[in-house]
Design a protein that fits this description.
209 residues, Arc Repressor Mutant, subunit A, 2 domains, 73% helix
Length: 209
C-alpha cells in the first residue's frame, strides 16, 4: 500500500467513526506516520480526500461487472426475471454482497449516511443512487411481473417497490448506527434477512397456481 492509499484508508476510518468535521489533517498524518505537509503531495485539502473516497463508491456503481451484468437487466425478455423472480433478486443481492464484503466499502456507506447532511454532492448522490434509481428499478420489476400475470393485478408496483426496498435500507441504517466496524457475521445476517423479506413479499403478491 502506497502513501496515498494509506491516507485514503486512515481518513476513511477516522471520518466514518468520528465524522468528517471532527478529524484534522494533523490527526490523519499522525495515524499514517507522516508529516502533515506530506499529505499535500497527494491531496490538496481534507475535502479532496473526502471527494476521492466518495468517487471510489460512485465508480463501483458505474463499472462493477456484477451489478451491470446482462442477467440483471430489467427487460420483459429476461428469462430469469420472468421464470424465477426470486433468483433474479438473489443474483442482485449477491452482487451487492460482494461489494459490501470489502470493509472499505462498508465504511464509505456509513460515511455517506453521516456526511450527506453536510455536503451537497454527497446528498445528491444519496438521493439519486440510493433512493430514486433503486425505486425506479424495483417499480419496473413489479410492473413487468404484473404485466406478465405473475403478481396480482390489483397491486400498485410503486408501493410494492417502496415496501421491497425500504427494509434493506432500514437494516443498513441499523447496522451502521450500531457498529464502528461491522462484523462479517452481522453482514451475513443482513443479507439473510433482506432476502427472506424479499421472498415473503413476492410470495404474498404472486398469483397462486
Amino acid at each position: 500500500m502506497n502513501t496515498k492509499e494509506k491516507i485514503f484508508d486512515v481518513s476513511l476510518d477516522l471520518f466514518s467513526k468520528k465524522g468528517y468535521d471532527s478529524v484534522s489533517l494533523n490527526e490523519i498524518a499522525e495515524r499514517v506516520g507522516i508529516k502533515k505537509s506530506s499529505i499535500y503531495s497527494h491531496y490538496s485539502s481534507k475535502e479532496a480526500i473526502l471527494m476521492d473516497i466518495f468517487d471510489h463508491l460512485t465508480n463501483l456503481f458505474e463499472y462493477d461487472e456484477l451489478l451491470n451484468s446482462k442477467e440483471l437487466l430489467l427487460r420483459e425478455d429476461n428469462e430469469i426475471l420472468i421464470e424465477n423472480p426470486e433468483l433474479f433478486y438473489h443474483m442482485g443481492s449477491e452482487a451487492i454482497k460482494t461489494m459490501f464484503s470489502q470493509e472499505r466499502n462498508l465504511k464509505i456507506w456509513k460515511l455517506i449516511f453521516i456526511q450527506m447532511h453536510y455536503n451537497e454532492k454527497i446528498r445528491l448522490f444519496f438521493q439519486d443512487e440510493i433512493l430514486v434509481k433503486p425505486l425506479i428499478f424495483w417499480k419496473g420489476f413489479f410492473t413487468i411481473l404484473k404485466d406478465k400475470g405473475i403478481i396480482k393485478k390489483d397491486y400498485n408496483p410503486e408501493l410494492l417497490a417502496k415496501e421491497y426496498y425500504s427494509f434493506p435500507i432500514y437494516l443498513l441504517l441499523e447496522i451502521t448506527a450500531k457498529y464502528d466496524d461491522i462484523p462479517e457475521s452481522c453482514l451475513e445476517d443482513f443479507f439473510s434477512q433482506a432476502e427472506e423479506h424479499a421472498k415473503f413479499l413476492l410470495d404474498s403478491v404472486k398469483v397462486k397456481e
